[in-house]
Amino acid sequence: MTTTVGIRSKDGVVLAADKRASKGFFVGSKVVQKIFSLDGATAVAIAGAMSDAEYLVNLAKAERRLLALRRGYPLSVKESAKLISNIVYSSMKSYNPFYVELVVAGVDQEGAHVYTSDMSGAITSEDFMSSGSGSPIAYGVLEQGFRKEFSLDEARKLAEAAVRAAMERDPGSGNGVDVLAIPNGHSLEAN
Amino acid sequence: MATEMGRMPFFYNQEGRLVQVDYALQAVSRGSTTLGLKTKDFALLSSQVKPTRPLMEPAEKVFVVDDHIGATGSGYIGDVTTLLDQVRVAAQRHRIVYDEPIDVGTLSRNLSEYLHEFTMYAVRPFGASVLLAGIDHLGVQLIQVDPSGTTFKGSAFAIGQSADDALETIVKGYRPDISVDAAVALVTQAIEGVNGGKSVIEHGIVTANSKRFEHRQSTVG
Q1: Is the alpha carbon torsion for A126, A186, B91, B75 positive or negative?
Q2: How many whole angstroms separate alpha carbon B70 and alpha carbon A87?
Q3: Distance, in angstroms, between A176 CA and closest chain B CA?
Q4: How far, in Å, CA of A31 to CA of B58, rounded?
Q5: What domains lie within chain B, and their CATH numbers?
Q6: Which domains does chain A have, with CATH numbers?
């Protein structure tokens, strides 16, 4: 279930997700947040089991904070994505997987990045990305509309349009769109 | 009987003392002079950075534990950093379990239990005392934790070299409404007073307003 979208633009990243939590054929919640911020500059959008997602995000937050305190500077987006994928990978290998598909997006010294990882922990770096049951529909919009030279605002509009298209036809997605845009150079300190 | 006890230094001696713990406290009193001062508005941690050799960077002495808590220590610096990591992990564990920042009392209890384990068995107790300063729902907190696991709560503490003399200066100059700048000046005076002149001092402050523990430049403003 769910539709999440992540887009990289020349001046920042955008995450978008619907707000529906499904309980089988029933709408369990209409106000669920599927985008979690790890800090002011990095966030994840998660499709899959909400319990696993929330636990994973809390664990990643703690590990990131510890590493940043120990070494004195925060993690890059790539390091954050790798940290999460390592957690997901090791739990899959011990037959206790996190049922999640996630998009890690953020800005750091090197600019804007979008990474994606499935429950096996395989990560790739993408210009745009969608996951969840609505992703085939969202990809239709993204493949048509995406341009490399997009501004952050254009990326934001496309991300929202992709999720809205998926909500029209995917019964697992609906009840509104959450959008998070992180411009380049955004503070790493803010929570 | 007496000789048998001499072979078990980790056990009580005939006076009922744990000599290993006494020695650990002695190790702390050889460390650099380290002070903590608290009012209802802020808590300040200050530690003298021992004179360094030319071209060497001075060691870090005041540490951020989590957003709202800081720590410093005196004694063997390796022991201090190990204890520091223990409290940092405890703080993050608390965030995972409760989705809330840890309170200073729970954190000090965790550290105290950890230290206490090392007084029970044939191992070396930590040669370090730790000062924790932070803010939680109960207000601004200042806590000292010793190698035995003993904790003290209070408005001012001194550990390390000439701690008693330094504390005397603090006691004379302390006011419940002392300002941050005056407090920094007071602890600087206390540390320099027992170490014979100008010292490099590292400060960390948490205030009731900011609710963040942050380093502060050692120059008195």
Answers
A1: positive
A2: 28
A3: 26
A4: 52
A5: 31-47+59-199 (3.60.20.10)
A6: 4-183 (3.60.20.10)
Q: Tens of pLDDT along B65-107?
A: 999 999 999 999 999 999 999 999 999 999 998 889 999 999 9
Q: Which amino acid is at A129?
A: M
CB contact under 8 A, A69 and B93: no
Amino acid letter for position A44: V
ipTM beyond 0.85?
A: no
pLDDT per residue as tens digits for the range A127-180: 999 999 999 999 999 999 999 999 999 999 999 999 999 999 999 999 999 999
Q: Is B181 exposed, middle or buried (0-12, 13-18, 19+ CB in 10 A)?
A: exposed
DSSP secondary structure string for all residues of A157-171? HHHHHHHHHHHHH-T
Cα nearest neighbour of A56 on chain B: B96
Residues in chain B: 221
For chain B, count helices (H), then strands (E).
Answer: 6, 10
Catalytic residue chosen out of the listed positions A2, A3, A4, A116: A2
CB contact under 8 A, B95 and A59: no
CA B82 to chain centre: 13
Interface touch A62/B99, C-beta < 8 Å: no
Active site residue A2: yes
